[in-house]
């Protein structure tokens, strides 16, 4: 099978859920953001927006509000996490990139997902830990929605689709679990 650095990075990346407290460098941050904006987008519309959040108070507020929002969701697993005081939705990561998209953009959810995937792969490629965190979405849509849109500088008509927690890994992740089989067929 073909092998190269990109393929190795794809297979090596795992969600990291334990971060060192030191902040990532500006060069590392710019590298992952650039990877995000080089993602493909439907019709090349590029209708995404990235909010870099490194303010600890804002991260803590988002953590609290997301858990409060998630506590209302009718799902036992989600409720257990939401009600666990020790659980931090960002796992203590010092940087979170919120990925938003223009609400009326064509296939905007896919565009934002492509950008998010690029960010987590770029993070792995330069030795950073990352976790795709959609738990953050529970902080939006409620009473504090408008306040967050302003505080986080979302352009008018945009809404959050995902986020990525970023930082230095506390420990190396184990290899990916076995992949499910029989998920490919061929029409030749
Ligand atoms: C759309 C999406 C949303 C996710 N949201 C969360 C999240 O809120 N919190 C979290 O810890 N992991 C989240 N993840 C990470 C998945 O749990 C993780 O990718 C999956 O368990 C496979 O593990 P791996 O990333 O180590 O391969 C999310 C992943 C995706 C694709």
Please tag this protein with its features:
NADH Oxidase, single chain, 4 strands, binds flavin mononucleotide, 188 residues, globular, alpha+beta
Question: How do the strands and helices of this protein lay out in sequence?
Answer:
Blueprint: H1 5-12, H2 26-37, E1 48-53, H3 56-70, H4 76-82, E2 95-102, H5 108-125, E3 129-132, H6 145-151, E4 158-167
Antiparallel strand pairs: 1-2, 2-4, 3-4
Helix pairs in contact: 2-5, 3-4
Bound molecules: flavin mononucleotide.
Please describe what this structure looks like.
The structure is a single chain. With 188 residues, the protein is of the alpha+beta class. Helices cover 36% and strands 15% of the residues. It has a four-stranded antiparallel β-sheet with strand order 1-2-4-3. The protein is globular. The model has no long low-confidence stretch (mean pLDDT 96). It binds flavin mononucleotide. Flavin mononucleotide binds next to strand 3. The site of flavin mononucleotide has 9 residues, from strand 3. One of its GO terms (cellular component) is cytosol. This is Protein DrgA. One of its GO terms (molecular function) is oxidoreductase activity, acting on other nitrogenous compounds as donors, with NAD or NADP as acceptor.
């Amino acid at each position: 099978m073909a092998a190269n650095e990109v393929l190795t990075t794809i297979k090596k990346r795992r969600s990291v859920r334990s971060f060192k407290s030191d902040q990532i460098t500006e060069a590392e941050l710019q590298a992952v953001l650039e990877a995000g904006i080089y993602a493909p987008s439907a019709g090349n519309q590029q209708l995404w927006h990235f909010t870099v959040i490194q303010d600890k108070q804002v991260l803590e507020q988002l953590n609290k509000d997301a858990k409060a929002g998630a506590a209302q969701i009718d799902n036992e697993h989600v409720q257990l996490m939401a009600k666990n005081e020790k659980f931090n939705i960002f796992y203590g990561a010092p940087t979170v990139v919120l990925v938003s998209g223009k609400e009326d953009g064509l296939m905007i959810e896919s565009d934002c997902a492509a950008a998010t995937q690029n960010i987590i792969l770029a993070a792995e490629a330069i030795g950073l830990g990352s976790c795709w965190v959609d738990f953050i979405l529970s902080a939006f849509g409620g009473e504090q929605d408008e306040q967050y849109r302003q505080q986080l500088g979302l352009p008018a008509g945009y809404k959050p689709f995902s986020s990525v927690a970023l930082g230095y890994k506390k420990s190396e992740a184990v290899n990916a679990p076995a992949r499910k089989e029989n998920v490919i067929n061929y029409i030749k």
